[in-house]
Amino acid sequence: MPRRKGAPEVNAGSMADIAFLLLIFFLVTTTIETDAGLDRMLPPIEPPDTDVIIKQKNIFTVNINKNGQLLVEDQLMDIKDLREAAKAFLDNNADGTCTYCKGRKDPSSSDNPTKAIISLKNDRETKYSTYITVQNELVGAYNDLRNREAQRLFGRDFTEMEAEYLNPETPSSIREDLKDKVKRIQDMFPQKLSEAETSTAN
């Protein structure tokens, strides 16, 4: 009886090369999503040369407790009313130096937009979603006022101009033109949003 031949061998010599090529292919073609995060300007590390005295009326205090309730200027407030309250504070113009402000000039509120500071503080047990919602409303107050002035001066929204300016695909000539316009609007309503240290729950 003739001897049976064994099963044919598979040449695996190039399998490592194929696996390596597939690995390179997937590394090159796969996109990894990254979180954009929050755009915030951090204060400088160096302390100021002179002590800056800030009047209490120029600080708009917003506190969030662990239950998600808002205490604005020591008064309970619904989150839907926060943006308008913040805009009224920023646009108040108590000292009359702001030529573009349309506020009530309430002597007990902020002197002008350059001195107005919004202080946001939350409890350690505050829900993250609540904190971000409140923060978005406060940033929205700045953007609404900036949009108003950008429409008056340049006929378009500030948020649109800023997005185009920050877009790396925008041609350099257009970005250069937008640079001074964006800075001018930012200087009119500087975003002074102080995020205070979280308080310990009682």
UniProtKB/TrEMBL annotation:
Topology with respect to the bilayer: Single-pass membrane protein; Single-pass type II membrane protein
Subcellular location per the Swiss-Prot or TrEMBL entry: Cell membrane
Keyword DNA damage: no
Listed transmembrane segments: none
A Pfam entry, by short name: ExbD
GO biological process: protein transport
Family the UniProt entry places it in: Belongs to the ExbD/TolR family.
Protein name: Biopolymer transport protein ExbD/TolR
